[in-house]
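$ ./design --mode recover --in tokens.txt
reading tokens...
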């Protein structure tokens, strides 16, 4: 029997700096929805939320600034990608009770335990036979959460950003392996980009990460980077020696020191410059990478996490996040190098998701991408603090909130890979 009430998190106020979980995203208890009394022809499903993906894009959705999706309305349920089970169906539908479905930031909302949506707005997660046909290796069991990580929008973002925007070339097509730099390299998207670059395309890979542990993960565990830069250690050293420097001076000092370390790692891997930059961070890291590009380099702009907690509705007056500042500093070099800088959104490629998921699944099976256990927090009430942790780097890989246990009495549904 379903409960009468559920946990829901709504956007109460728009943050202009850091997120305050209890003020911006308070927890509430509301009635579990029921099917309307009308005899509408649209098939409906009642979903019970199982898992919620925590992603940097959520910070942008909380702002009123122009973006690729409309802002989350004040007092609306906070948006997010989810995995849910179907607990009831009304009308003729391909879905049945017990099916597990995924949904990305659409009408199904996100941060609630139960929701009624159109059956057409969600998609049943794929089975092994649908993902990989006639593969000689024996499938192994992996948890449902892989559909929010490697086989979800996280993996798809890495896939399309690196392959379609970064346009990597195999060593057989060039005189040398291409040189790739990925920042936030130990994060959910970055770590997949590094593995595709190294293990599928044979690139030389530089990873930028925020701790010694994350750097060791990239070098020793995943073995997907040839060299790493610990930017957090670098920033701490700069700040200790900066005294009373103002923010602009501090930005300049960090830029200078990052450039030194970038030159050092390029020399370490016997490279002169960068062919591909996969940027998740923005700020001084992107600035300094743009000054080390090779001819015909490609820069894929995936995110700008260093500036997400700035007030995006106001004009920036410095070059810490301003695209104009970036162009004015490096414009002539970008022109002469014939470099390409392109932002992208994974939704741009939605018609190609199915084929991309099949390729990602095959690479997991072949060991070219290693599935890593996600960082899973328990309980919807902990979603706001998990989002804060994401922006402070206090997570290990893909961050997910477990909202509930499966309720339908049937054999546990897993993804067989």
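writing sequence...
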């Amino acid at each position: 029997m379903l409960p009468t009430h559920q946990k829901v998190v709504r956007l109460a106020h728009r943050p202009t700096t850091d997120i305050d979980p209890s003020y911006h995203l308070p927890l509430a208890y509301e009635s579990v929805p029921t099917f309307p009394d009308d005899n509408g022809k649209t098939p409906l499903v009642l979903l019970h939320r199982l898992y919620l993906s925590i992603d940097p894009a959520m910070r942008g959705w909380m702002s009123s600034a122009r973006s690729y999706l409309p802002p989350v309305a004040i007092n609306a349920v906070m948006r997010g990608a989810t995995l849910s089970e179907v607990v009831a169906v009304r009308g003729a539908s391909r879905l049945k009770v017990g099916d597990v479905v995924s949904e990305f930031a659409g009408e199904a909302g996100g941060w609630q335990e139960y929701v009624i949506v159109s059956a057409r707005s969600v998609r049943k997660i794929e089975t092994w036979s649908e993902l990989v046909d006639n593969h000689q290796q024996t499938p192994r069991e992996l948890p449902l959460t892989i559909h929010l990580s490697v086989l979800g929008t996280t993996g798809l973002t890495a896939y399309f950003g690196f392959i379609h925007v970064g346009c990597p070339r195999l060593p057989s097509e060039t005189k040398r392996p291409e040189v790739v730099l990925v920042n936030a390299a130990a994060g959910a998207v970055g770590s997949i980009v590094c593995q595709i670059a190294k293990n599928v395309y044979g690139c030389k890979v530089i990873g930028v990460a925020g701790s010694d542990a994350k750097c060791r993960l990239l070098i020793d565990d995943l073995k997907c980077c040839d060299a790493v830069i610990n930017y957090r250690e670098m920033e701490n050293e700069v700040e200790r020696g900066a005294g009373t420097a103002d923010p602009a001076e501090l930005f300049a000092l960090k830029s200078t020191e990052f450039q030194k370390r970038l030159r050092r790692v390029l020399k370490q891997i016997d490279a002169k410059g960068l062919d591909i930059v996969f940027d998740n961070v923005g700020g001084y890291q992107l600035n300094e990478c743009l000054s080390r590009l090779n001819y015909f380099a490609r820069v894929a702009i995936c995110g700008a996490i260093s500036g997400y907690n700035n007030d995006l509705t106001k004009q920036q007056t410095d070059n810490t996040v301003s695209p104009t500042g970036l162009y004015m500093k490096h414009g002539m070099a970008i022109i002469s190098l014939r470099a390409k800088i392109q932002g992208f959104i994974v939704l741009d490629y939605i018609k190609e998701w199915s084929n991309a998921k099949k390729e990602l699944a095959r690479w997991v099976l072949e060991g070219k991408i290693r599935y890593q256990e996600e960082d899973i927090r328990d309980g919807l009430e902990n979603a706001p603090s998990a989002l804060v942790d994401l922006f402070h780097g206090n997570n290990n890989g893909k961050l997910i909130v477990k909202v509930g246990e499966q309720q339908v009495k049937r054999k546990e549904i897993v993804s067989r890979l």
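exit 0
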